[in-house]
Structures are given as structure tokens and as C-alpha cells.
Specification:
By secondary structure, the chain is mainly beta. Helix content is 2%, strand content 47%. The protein has a 4-stranded mixed sheet, with no helix packed on it. A 4-stranded antiparallel sheet has the order 6-5-9-10, with no helix packed on it. A 4-stranded antiparallel sheet has the order 15-14-17-18, with no helix packed on it.
Length: 331
Amino acid sequence: VEFKTLSTAELSDCSFNRENALRSAGSLYVFADGTAVVFRTEKDGIRINGQNADGAAESTQTCTLTETTEIEKIELFYQADGEAVKAWHTVSDVTNEKPIHIVYDKAAPKLELVPDAANEAGYYNSDLSVLLKAEDTGDFSGIASVEYWVFCDGNKTQEETVVYTHADGEEILAEKEIAVEVKADVNNSDDVVLYAKVVDRAGNETTENVGLKINSSRPVVTVEMKDTAPRHAEAEESYYQSERVAVITITDRGTTFDETAATKGIEIMTKNADGEEIAVAKPGILWTHNGDKHTAELRFDTEARYDWNIAYQNKAGLKNDGIAAKGDAVF
């Protein structure tokens, strides 16, 4: 008995809507979820991976895919020249070693937000940059758009801004990095949130956010002397007979006020009546707080001539304009 080998079919004997693929590379075709991939033939029937087309009869000339499929075998049903009856003919171009990959991109892209490094206290005191790192992984459809917006204290301060859009004909990107600016003047708060969204070409999207703390307001230091100490009647002005008290007020956001730095920033130089430098212990300083107002009393009660200065830097790294007082003395 001699069995005749059936002739093989060619891939050109069937077609599918590859033009609807979002991206193709070699034998890979990436589609959006919900897009039907329909294989067609002018022959009498088609089946894929041994399955009859759409579960219908052999004569059906279409086969529809709606899920990711690795096609290792395509068969067409027809009567070839020299054959007595219709039979299934395997397409020679498609094998388990040369499959067609039909992929539905259902995976959301990844998005990472990387701000400039904050200071050691976690603050910024000026405009800052945030790097938006978008990535469409796996058998990707490509990044379609990237946008961002900013809220401060619950209010939108920077409107939605699209910083990347894929245009037809451009290279399809799996990764995109874009630096955007957060403006300090309109986001001067501990409660700043930058939001960003990436959408891939299949319509999958991811939104991420990052919290930021910004203080761009320089602290203000004021000093008021309590005028309670009697002056020497016959001495130079600014010479007093008893202790003097300076009331120091620092206006600074409560969360960035640094009590240790404020105390350390008070420098006192002392001299005796002959102008010689003398060592006087720094008086104890107790701060009280009322919102953004921070107050302390500095007492000059040791017999000496005092020159003193206040230099303050808050936790956001902002400094005050220096304040100096010279000539006051207690004798």
C-alpha cells in the first residue's frame, strides 16, 4: 500500500488583520484588548492549532482570536490539484519552531517618580525637578502619553500637562524619561503632591504620586528690648544699672523651625569696662511657640559690655538676614 503525501499550503493562502496591530516585530503582533484578530482564507476552511474555526463546521473560512495565542499550526481545507477529495493542508510557513505570536497587551505600564534629593530634613526651598520614568514592559504596545499635575494643600496649582505624546510614524517606545518642574512659589507647603499618569497604546494606564515638602519663605528674626532697666544718670547712653532683656521673635513655619539652631545661632561677645574680653556664660534660653511665631527672652544680667548677633537657619536650609546689636552694657 502506498500513501500519498498531501501537499502543503502557503501562508499567502490566508490573511489576518495585521494592520490593526499596535506594534509588530518579526512574527510578533501586539493588539489592544477587545480587538478581534480574524484569520481568513479563500479556501474551504481554516483551523488554528488543530481547532476548527470559531467552533463551526469545516467549511468556515474565518477563525477569530481574542486572547494571546502562540500559533504553531495553521491548516487550510481544500482539494488540491491531483487530489481526489478535500483535505486539511498544513501551512508550511508556520511551525512550532516558527510560530506566529498574537499578543493582547492587557498589562498596565510602570511609572516611577524620582524627585531631586531633599535636604536631610526632607525639605526643598526652591523649584525642584521630578523625573518621570515610564516603562511599558513585556510584549509591549508602546507608550502613548505621559502627563502630570500638582496639588498643594488640596488645591490644584499646576494643571494637567501632557509632556509626551506618541505620534503616528514615530518610533514606538517601551521607555520614556521626562524631567518636570515643581514650582516653589505656588507650592510653598508641607502638603505638596505631584501626580503623573502614563497610558500605553493599548489604553492601559497607571497613575502614581509623590509627596513633597517645600518651604521657600525665609525666616524673619526681630528683636525688641524690654525697656525696664534704669540707665546710669551720668554714664554714656546704653549703659544700665540692672539686667536688660531682649525679646527675640523668629517667624518661621512650625515644621521647619529648628530650636537648637536658633539657640546656637545667638552669639554673645562680652568685654569689661576697660574693653578687655571676658568670658560670660551664655544665658539659658527657653523658646515658646505660637503657630509660626517662636519667642525667647535673652537676659543680660552679668556686669559687662555686650555685643551680640543672631544668625538662624531653619530645617529647610533658609537663613534670616543677620541681626546684630552692639554697645548695650550692664554695669
